[in-house]
Amino acid sequence: MTVFAIHEQLQADCHVLGGYGACSVLLHRNGSLPWYIVVPETRALELDELSDAERIAVDGVTDALARFIKGFHRCERTNVAAIGNRVPQLHVHVVGRWQGDPCWPDPVWGNLPDAPPRSEAQLQAIRSALTEALPA
Question: Which residues form the HIT domain (predicted)?
Answer without folding.
Answer: 37-104
